[in-house]
Amino acid sequence: MSETGTPLANPRDLPVFAPGEPPRLLAEHLSYAYHPGRSAAPRFTLEPVSFRARRGELLMIVGPNASGKTTLLRLLSGLLRPLAGHVELDGVSLEKLDARTRAQRIAVVQQESPLVFPMSAVEYVLQGRYPYSRRLHFPSTDDLDLAMKSLEQVGGAHLAERWMHEISGGEKQRVVLARALAQQPLLLLLDEPTLHLDIGGQVELLRQLAALAANGRATIVVVTHELGLAAEFADQVVLMHRGRALGTGKPSEVFQETVLREVFAAPLRVEPGASGRPRIVLEVRTE
Amino acid sequence: MSPSKPLTSRKVIGVTLLLALLLLVVAVISLRLGAVSISTPQVGACLVEAATGNTAHMTADCRMIVLDLRLPRVLLALLVGASLSVAGAGFQALLRNPLADPYVLGVSSGAALGAILALLVQPRTTIGTMAAAFAGALLTVAAVYFLGRRHGHLDSFTLLLAGIITASFFSAIIMFLMASLPGRDLRGMAFWLMGDLSSPLPVRTGWLMLVAWMTIGGVYTTAADLNLLAAGEQEAEHLGVNVGRVKLVVYLAGSLLTALAVSVSGAIGYIGLLVPHVMRMLFGSDYRLLIPASALGGALALIIADTLARTVIAPTELPVGAMTAIAGAPVFIYLLRRKLG
Questions:
Q1: Rounded to a whole number, what is the distance in Å from the CA of A121 to chain B's nearest CA?
Q2: N or C: which end of chain A has fewer CB within 10 A?
């Protein structure tokens, strides 16, 4: 695949950075191994992966199921310690951040976990202010304003006073995103955010994320297996396959037909689309 | 029901004062009721005289019935009710399960078994009994926690089954031990199995109160963290919560509160389930309000239950655990069905 994708060890076309300014996100030779037992062979390994992203960039980690996408995201979140390598945010290694500071800089939107007790949407969003407040964390008027602003940003202002268990999956997704925005993060990580959305919802969410990245202060990293969405919206993609990063760079460089066919084991065709972005078509012929 | 506004400290203080006032009223009513009825002014005068140390004009009714018989029992109910409710609310967040409760999880039975074993070995040391009850509670929570896991995740129904089976196993051992003791004691058996507030306190209530309220205060320091924990463990970590520390605090405090309650009153059921649930319905599920509300509400509920237990079929007394089970079991079934449905 080195003929088609960008080789990992020496990426040719990385985003241009202002001289002297550290990149917003820097992942250097990140690797990880998951051992089910102490002496057992690792069940899953992530081979060293490196990439960098600028402020305001939308980076998408793409790959089939069990390719290591989520592991990579968890390494970026700082909750999972890499076996080797490190992650830097604005030049500061994540290992140097305490939990509270980390939560002020990195927000994570996960595949949803069910709520045990009823909670209103605005209460949920206010949790995003936790890393900024003192012990008992009663919200200030500023916190409330910010929570409402975050909800507005995702088009969910009307949901504020609704119960979380009474709103739809798509609406819930917005509220979860609003909570992450209320953290005012430098880095926003999303794990399969389009999983339970229909195609309209997926496009709307990606539009929102692209807009947030473009005019916000955050760099956004999205894990997804939706190739089409990545081709259309990502500034940069990292293509994962069996614990290896096959390529990093612009979608037009990384999404090569032969590689995608191999990785996704599906008859995919890559066409040059308008605006220079590749278009990925599923080609199933019945003989 | 539409959601309430985000919680303010003013609301916490307001609700806490309201419940404290209600607790005072119920306590006075409980002091009035019994085989001998005593009027409210008499109860009031009696309490004031006792508080000011002005015992010169104290009536016999005041000294013997109110101060010696009824007041210790009301105070004990207050202590046990508050402890069990806060332990329940804590376990519910810790295990992310609204049906968790020291009794349902078998923690009360574990504490009771620990206490009985200590009594068999060394009958006279109350501190030893309490320490053994604490050890029993800690071990039971740990055991149920690991038995309740399936495929590496805490499964709420496996957890409940593990708790219920652990409880019945420990109850059987308790019965076996009590029955084989010389001078079999049916009342003692009821005390450990059903919970009962009629036994005199082995140690000063003041000390127990101090330990219980300090432990409840310890749980309260984690209130904001518990809100996030209840919304998801990994998410709480992403938001900067030190999940390991919070879980340890709640695990230790919940076990200690259960052990305190059990070593003075046996295994009283359902208070830790019922009270936090009602408080959530009334005031929302925010732990910053839920913990003080559960503490006061638990005290309130157990004083009412015990007053009923000693008056409904007077002069015979029911174990208070029978009263709480009559009220609590149907609520448990209701919650279980709603969770399934």
A1: 9
A2: C
Tell whether B17 is covered by a domain.
no
For residues B118 and B247, the answer to whether their CB atoms sit within 8 Å is: no
Residue type at B240?
Answer: G
User: What's the number of domains chain B is made of?
Assistant: 1
In Å, how far is B98's CA from the nearest CA of chain A?
Answer: 7
* Strands, sheet with A84-89, edge to edge from the N-terminal-most edge strand: A44-53, A25-34, A84-89, A92-93
Q: Is A115 close to B238, i.e. CB distance below 8 A? A: no
Give the separation between CA B275 and CA B261, rounded to whole angstroms: 15
Write down the pLDDT at residue B202: 62
Query: Phi-psi bin for B259: left (phi > 0), alpha (psi -120 to 50), beta?
Result: alpha
Contact between A125 and A179 (Cβ < 8 Å) = yes
Q: Assess whether the previous peptide bond of B182 is cis (omega < 30° from 0).
A: no
Closest C-alpha among A100, A165, A161, A71 to residue B231: A165
In this predicted structure, the answer to whether residue A287 has a pLDDT above a threshold of 60 is no
Distance (Å) of CA A222 to CA A16, A54, A229, A255, B44: 21, 14, 11, 17, 67
**Residues in CB range of B68: below 8 A, 6 or more apart:** none
Tokens of A152: 């507005």
More confident residue, A165 or A60: A60
Q: How far away is chain A from the Cα of B96, in angstroms, using its nearest Cα?
A: 6
CB-based contact, B281 to chain A, within 8 Å: no
pLDDT in tens, B206-251: 888 899 999 999 999 999 999 998 888 888 999 999 988 999 999 9
How does pLDDT run across B284-295, given as a tens digit for each residue?
889 999 999 999
Euclidean distance between CA atoms B59 and A15, whole angstroms: 90
In a domain, B91, yes or no: yes
Cβ of residue A132 closer than 8 Å to a chain B Cβ = no
Report the distance separating Cα B132 and Cα B110, nearest Å: 10
CB-based contact, A134 to chain B, within 8 Å: no
pTM for the full predicted model: 0.86
What residue ranges define each of the domains in chain A, with the CATH number in brackets? 1-9+21-90+186-192+217-287 (3.40.50.300), 95-185 (3.40.50.300)
Q: In which region does residue B157 sit, left (phi positive, over 0), alpha (psi from -120 to 50) or beta (all else)? A: alpha
Could you please report the per-residue DSSP string of A183-243?
T--SEEEEESTTTT--HHHHHHHHHHHHHHHHHSS-EEEEEES-HHHHHHH-SEEEEEETT
Q: How many CB pairs under 8 A join A and B?
A: 94
Check: CB of residue A199 under 8 Å from CB of residue A206: no
Question: For residue A222, is pLDDT > 90?
Answer: yes
Find the CB nearest A110 among B93, B224, B234: B234
CATH of the domain at B76: 1.10.3470.10
* Domain enclosing residue B183, as ranges: 71-340
| Structural contact between residues A19 and A79, judged by C-beta atoms closer than 8 angstroms | no
Judge whether B257 lies within some domain. yes
